Amino acid sequence: MKIEIRNNNFILHSSGAVFWKEQKILLISDVHLGKIAHFRKHGLAIPGNAIAENFNRLDEVVALQKPEKIIFLGDLFHSKINNEWNLFAYWVNKIQTEIVLVEGNHDIIEQQNYSDLNIEIHKELILDDFLLTHHPVENEWFFNFCGHVHPGIKLKDVGRQSLKLACFFHKEKQMILPAFGEFTGKYFMRPYENDKVYAIANNEVIRVF
Amino acid sequence: MNREALFTIAENWFEKQKWKPFAFQTQTWTAFLQGKNGLLNAPTGSGKTYALWMPIVLNYIKKNPDYKTKHKPGLKAIWITPLRALSVEIKQAAEKVADDLETKLTVAIRSGDTSATERARQKTKMPDLLITTPESLQLLLATKDYAKMFRDCDAIVIDEWHELLGTKRGVQMELGLSRLKTIASGIRIWGISATIGNLELAQEVLLGTNSEAYKNSILIKAHINKKINVLSIIPEKMDTYPWRGHMGLHLIDEVAKIIRKSKTTLVFTNVRSACELWFQALLEKYPEFAGEMAMHHGSISKETRLWVENAIRNEELKVVVCTSSLDLGVDFAPVETIIQIGGPKGVARFLQRAGRSGHQPGKQSNIYFLATHAMELIEASALRKAVRETIVEDRMPYLHSYDVLIQYLNTLAVSDGFFPDEIFEEIKSTFCYQNFTKENWQWILNFIVNGSQSLQVYDEFKKVEIEEDGSYKINSRRIAMHHRMQIGTIVGDAVLNVKYLKGGYIGTVEEWFASKLTPGDTFTFAGKKLEFYRIKDMQVLVRKANPKKVSKTISWMGGRMSFSAQMSELLRQELYRANTEDSTPELKALKPMFDRQKKESVIPNDSQFLIETFKTREGYHAVFYPFEGRFVHEAMASLLSYRISLLFSITFSLAYNDYGFELLSDQQVDLEAVFDNNLFSTEYLHHDLQKSLNATEMARRKFRDIAVISGLVFTGMPGKPIKTKHLQSGSQLLFEVFRDYEPDNLLLQQAYIETFEHQLEEGRLIQAMERISQQEMVWKQCEKPTPFSFPIITDRLREKLSSETLAERIAKMTASYMK
């Protein structure tokens, strides 16, 4: 799905990532790496295979868009450090692309870990007309790209049918990205008149509102 | 001392109470003293406690002739009761016998309510008789050196075994018993059960299919027949009767008349919210009942419940509005009358409730049935027939519950550790795991040690560890603590305590209800009007509300019940009578509704299968009437909609009740095609059911309980503040992760097996389909909804099934959303 915001072109990917064409930047939010390993470390047997899937999906979207830079919009690593971090470090070395992290509420591990991997950390980031943050913010001038919420949408139809899907939630001056991570939930939102909603339906992104 | 001398002691005691032992009591004494195990089939209030406690005492006397002067310490018997509320009564009865016979035997209760100091005291000095619950017994197996504690135990009695059988608590009990048989070599195992359809099987499950205990066992039946009168509450004017379920409040005046006529009346409702509503309604319309009226349900605080139970016994109450929380045990002599509001769904439950009245020997039980909507009145005459012919349901025990086994193994690993070969032999002797394979056993062991089937690099999974001596043990204190907190197989919705701001505990509400409240909201709970203040530390803080304020009625999710096979058969027979002159008062009262049904459609006879179609604002309705009970309808609706969806690209929303089911769609269904393609065939039934989306949805719900029981989800202690939010996850999410990444996981497969066997009742479904295939299809194209269809099409709990692609469906939904 291609859209235009303030004369810039963006591709909404079915993985939940956004590719910014002019800047060749890939935006990804709420991966929550380390969550599964954290649970397993405490004796809760969540399938370990799901860990690999996060990296497979990262690989896929990177191979497709070939970004020059990847910006994570917070909640990249879910918890205290565990072995999933090593897998992430391996992945960072492998892809050889500049990585930036906009800090989220779950990013509690020592900053040193990121600087060791040459990952820059910012509280927020301004690029041209765009403000990148983890928590959604309202700003008079800038258009805000953010995450944190894990947006989802419920659809209804006659015959009492309904569907629940993850979505990109586009407000007048804001785009909330869906959670990229595998083992993450959804928060269902109600669109207002001027909002646009792009739902993820398997391998497609479809505008539903 | 020989048996005769021992019997004399017992008989003398009975004589002092001015009683005469029943035949079943002396039979049980004899069998017990002979060293036999067994199952005693006796109803509540028949003296079943004395049937088993007496021989336990006699056996102690026999083994210790100087019992009056010297007390031999140590645990001698365990009494398991499924409901904590029953334990006080049992303790009093047991203590009376022990004291009257000057035995110095001590009796104590251990349950979730027992204080920590009391529990610690018990650990150093066990009572002679321990009264406890299945969960607390498991907790004892989770303590260090538990084998020593049970070593000299002579007997274990499982009271109300019929309540445990057919649940995972029953499986938990089977596992606990398999361990006790090894560590307490002289133990006798006895169960007490009310009448169920499959008593022989109940005996086998209790004692273990491949066990010595089962070979050396006996089934004793107490033949006590009580007269039960079933009376319907029928209003004089039937035309005001609602077509679909309300609370039945339009008959409140009739109910009040019945209450006035008898000493104490119990009013049973099926759900807690109905209980609250009825209590309020009675109080408002009949304020004169105020001092003599109470409410009793599972979410009200324990203190209040105990107070109510005592007040009933002391004849202080005229009426108690209650739910299944008063179904069991406790003997209430003053209760003369029972009123059942809404269909009880099963014969056994109805009989149990009826038996709550007229408890004294020789008295009759009176039960009034109040139908909340017109169709339910047919159930009344069906129930009367069931009572007359004593038709009672079976309880179906679980097989291969991997989740309960995993919890049990973790329990053993928490205490002293276990050796797999020894435990495997023990569980193979049980009914539940009689056909358990070595492969599955290995899978389970891998699961608790590695959290998966193969060790992966980078994996830090930690739970059970294999020690040098080959034993399996949990060493982490934190993991052990988490496990102890989670022992149990009853998975409820997350609950929050409701407390006054100034202090004072009122009861519990489910989290989803609490989350909908905003400060200042008023709701009615435990018969009180409360104003919501805020949620703090997992507690709902409230204060007394202005009595004039409009309030919400609290609601609880709770599972919906389904007609049993027996009940469905009876109901069909009653319904078919509506076409004949052979009538009952209930069928006569229903005449206006039947006339309307005949005008719009037909009332089928036993050789017809009725299908109605009509169109409303909601779409195209097709309603089918197998009269087989909710669960079978759920399966049939799912199957049929799947098969239709193979013929055309279509999406359905499904609804069902105990009488029939509905397929609702935005397009018209060509029923001719349904008939031509023989869609009611039983061929490929299992395959088609599995394919239908509905099975996945149901398995998803089953998986939630399985995940909690097997310890995949950490829930913390019910009602206690959770400091472990970082270890919580939604079970929905979990189900998806398992489905996508570990589809062959046994726990995930168990969710499907339980769906097919316990929820969809595949066996019953096949029988029903075969019956229908013998019937003539009667298709009525109606102008508008008929009286039969009305309760179904207005049901809000729905499933969906679709053969359209996701994109197609979204395209359609978008259109309707934009309007």
Q: Identify the biggest protein-protein contact and residues per side.
A: A-B, 43 and 54 residues
Assign the structural class of chain B, choosing from mainly alpha, mainly beta, alpha/beta, alpha+beta, or little secondary structure.
Answer: alpha/beta
Beta-strand content of chain A:
25-35%
Per CATH, the class of the largest domain in chain B reads Alpha Beta
- Low-pLDDT stretches of chain A are none
CATH homologous superfamily descriptor of the largest domain in chain B = P-loop containing nucleotide triphosphate hydrolases
Stated plainly, the CATH topology of chain A is called Purple Acid Phosphatase, chain A, domain 2
Chain oligomer state? heterodimer
Widest sheet: strand ordering of chain B:
3-4-2-5-6-1-7
Strands of chain A, total number = 16
Indicate the percent of residues in helices of chain A: 10-25%
Which geometry of chain B do the CA atoms define? globular
If classified by CATH, what would the architecture of the largest domain in chain B be? 3-Layer(aba) Sandwich
Structural class of chain A: alpha/beta
Helix content of chain B: 40-55%
Mean pLDDT of chain A: 90
